[in-house]
Amino acid sequence: MNTGEHAMDRDEDVHDEQTDRIAALTELRRKLNDGLARARLNKAELAGRVHLGRTTVSEALLPDRPVPSARTVAVLAHALKLPVGELLELRRIAEADEVSGAWDGSGPGRPIGEWEPHALEIHPAGPGGGSPELSALPSYVRRKHDRYLDAAVQDAAQGSSRMTVLVGTSSTGKTRACWEAVQPLAVLGWRLWHPFHPAPAEAALEGLHRVQPRTVVWLNEAQRYLGDPQAGERIAAAVHALLIRPERGPVLVLGTMWPEYAAQYTVQPAPHHPDPYSRARELLAGRTLAVPETFDVPALAAAATFAKAGDRLLADALTRAEAEGRVTQDLAGAPELLRRYQDAAPGARAVMDAAMDAHRLGGGLRLPQEFLTDAATDYLSDTNYDLLSPDWAEQAFAELARPVKGKQAPLRRTALRPQRRPPGTLPPASAPPAAAGLMLRLADYLEQHGRTTRWSLCPKASFWHAAHGHLTSPSDLDNLAQAAYVRHWLQWAHHLAIRAIDVGSIGAMGRLSEWREEAGDQEGAEVLAGWAADAGSTDALRRLAEMRKVAGDWEGAVSVLRRAADAGSVDALRDLARTQEAAEALAQGASDRDGWPPASWDRRQLWGAEYLAREAAEAGAMFALSMASALKGIDVDEAEALQRLVASREETGDRERAENLVCRSADAGSSWALYVLAGWREKAGDRDGAEPLYQRAADYSFAAHRLAWLREKAGDRDGAETVARRAARVGHTDALILLARNREEAGDQESAELLYQRAADAGKVQARIGLRAWGLIKGRWPYGLDPDGTPTPRWKASIPQRPR
Q1: Rounded to whole angstroms, how far apart are CA atoms 799 and 336?
Q2: Contact call for residues 61 and 29 (beta carbons, < 8 A)
Q3: Is the pLDDT of residue 14 over 60?
């Protein structure tokens, strides 16, 4: 028999097997439907009787649906008095087709069973010195959140795509919970894909469109994907498309995230302010699951049972953590890491403080050893600095490299993976220069501890000097420059921005242009904006347009804005449409080309176009009016729509309907609506009723500063400061600044000075009163502040050379 005949025989065998499996699934469903008819039940009644979801029961009985799970078949067969064993055998034959044909070899990932859990970033807990081969996992203690996670996994196994993001603080067991949850899918032949190389966001954006059905998409530390400044919103859109398109499923997307990131991505922005996470907020809505920091009583009892059965890891952890229930943190080494930080030698402690400051201000996860060595010196007291030995740095890094109980080191070595490219291809021109020498990374728990305890502290002068001299990543330098500027450390912000421009940051050009304009250097601002615009920045083009307007060159402003609009900037399009002349110019430009608006625009861009079109239509631009009509029906975010509707109802005097809308939004958890309700109660004289609402809305800056004012007015100065500092901790410094102004006007200069200083160290916000409040800081210290808190002497800014 020749090769062709062999192939024909194989094809016939495959065809026969597939026919048998289809027949088995058809027969399984026929028997289930016959049993349902004999029992004289409908699907809803059957679902209630067997305690399964209606969708689960329906999909088990309908054709063209995935093979139902073994548990579903067994439960239904028992309830309908059918032979359980016979139906399970039919299911086994039918499932083999779906399992074997689930993946065509083109999608990312590999079978779940081939993954080693530590490769998925589960913290080692055993005595293996961090080695995955030697680090055993303790017995898994199930908690309440596991039940919800299991439901998502079961839905995925039965053919429905699902996504769940576990939200909890560091070392609370989020990643381990995801790993345990997917084990049933391993038996069913599912695959798992962990986008990580060469960088998480880059890998995810490149691979999401290739994900095959029956794949677990593993987004551990989801902020690395959704929070990426360039790719985050596109990743969120790609994941959403993966979940809602039936032909792509079933898939299961699992992620983990710290609470501060979840709050950052899901909080509703103030009206008329940027919304950088609209897609992420839409994706995460209804898909997050909180993981508690501590074990409750049932979980502690289960852990004790495992310990008695011989789990030495749990037994050891319970000797330290049972009283507070922080078992997972103990297993991950958090308490020992904290002890090592608190008890470290002065040099090692200074290194960790510098690393914490770098992480919280955006300096990147991987830090050069040379940077940390130079940055640490000013963190030492004069006495400890004088006592340093010549080899103090080597001793400090050796101390910090020692693992904590064989699991984690306070500061460990790390390396950038080389990018693998086809032979003959060149690296991208935008690639940042590689940092020389050893790269180090702070332990996750210490990073979070630094964010919590050092959020209002200014890094020392040696930190800024070392950042300028040793950091080479454009994004890291740009982040540090922004962090310095919003905290009014203006001189270092300027020099770090120049350094970022030197290594290729386009964003830093635009920001430095804005800062130079604020400082009155119009010529330097325009030069920098021109460079950034030439490099492709639409924000810089808008700044150039504003400069043209100030100079009276309206024709030039319109020309520049049209360049930005053609490049996809909705803000530039809004600027164009704000005047009759600009709207007509836009109309003429649009009439000259077909296919406007661009098909590539997303919902947010279309909504922005609708908004500006209505604005221009009111001024009489007929083209804009037709555009508004064409864009009618765009799905606008519900919270934004409610805010607009409330304003409309109040303007027309329909207070009752306005209040109903606000109450709806408040019931859904809108901080804006809670703030409005609190204001209504305060205006009615019900202060006792207003304060709790202001407290619930404290993540909204207006509510925070209003609550602080009420406390101050009542004579509770400490309470007012507590509220203001709490708000500043999450980015709303307005309350601190306004509290400082009030005390200054009352003659309490000393207290006002301290509050202004704290506000500057915490950074400014984007609230409506932010510019006014920030103006008080700028007026007080026109040349900025030094790292030691003293006013910076007058200094002269320089303009960098134009990048090549």
Answers
A1: 48
A2: yes
A3: no
Using alpha carbons only, give the angle 395, 398, 403 rounded to the nearest 5 degrees. 145
The DSSP element (H or E) to which 230 belongs, if any, is none
**Average pLDDT of the residues in 536-555:** 78
CB 639 within 8 A of CB 268: yes
Q: How far is CA 735 from the centre of its chain?
A: 26
- Span 63-73, average pLDDT: 77
Structure-block tokens of residue 233: 């919103």
- Token pair 């026969």 is at which residue? 16
SS (H, E, C) 642-693: HHHHHHHHHHCCCHHHHHHHHHHHHHCCCHHHHHHHHHHHHHCCCHHHHHHH
pLDDT at residue 16, as a whole number: 54
How many angstroms separate the CA atoms of 176 and 173, rounded? Answer: 5
Cβ neighbours around 87 below 10 Å, total: 23
Between 51 and 375, the higher pLDDT residue: 375
- Of residues 606, 650, 644, 645, the one with CA closest to residue 628: 606
**Token pair in block for residue 640:** 């934004």
- Specify the range with the lowest mean pLDDT, choosing from 392-406, 471-485, 494-508, 764-778: 764-778
* Rounded distance between C-alpha atoms, residue 517 and residue 519, angstroms: 5
Helix (H, G, I), strand (E, B) or coil at 597: coil
Q: Are 797 and 491 in contact (CB under 8 A)?
A: no
Which residues touch 718 (CB under 8 Å, ≥6 apart)?
none
Residue 44 CA, distance from chain mean position = 39
d(CA 222, CA 121): 12
**By mean pLDDT, which of 55-69, 363-377, 427-441 is the weakest?**
427-441
User: What DSSP string describes 351-372?
Assistant: HHHHHHHHHHTT--SSEEHHHH
Say if strands 191-193 and 110-111 run parallel, antiparallel, or are unpaired. antiparallel
Contact 304, 318 (CB under 8 A): yes
Q: Identify the three-state secondary structure at position 413.
A: strand
Reported as a pLDDT band with limits 50, 70 and 90, residue 100 is very low
φ and ψ at residue 69, rounded to 5 degrees: -70, 160
Determine contact, residues 590/561, Cβ cutoff 8 Å: no
Paired with 440 in beta bridges are 367, 413
Structure-block tokens of residue 422: 């086809």
Mean pLDDT of 546-574: 75
The highest-confidence range among 38-42, 241-245, 674-678, 799-803, by mean pLDDT, is 241-245
Alpha helices in 169-231 (DSSP H): 174-181, 183-187, 200-207, 223-226
**What integer pLDDT is reported at residue 699 of this predicted model?**
59
Strands annotated E in 222-350: 251-257, 288-290
Would the pLDDT of 387 be above 90? yes
β-strand 367-368 against 439-442: which pairing, if any?
antiparallel
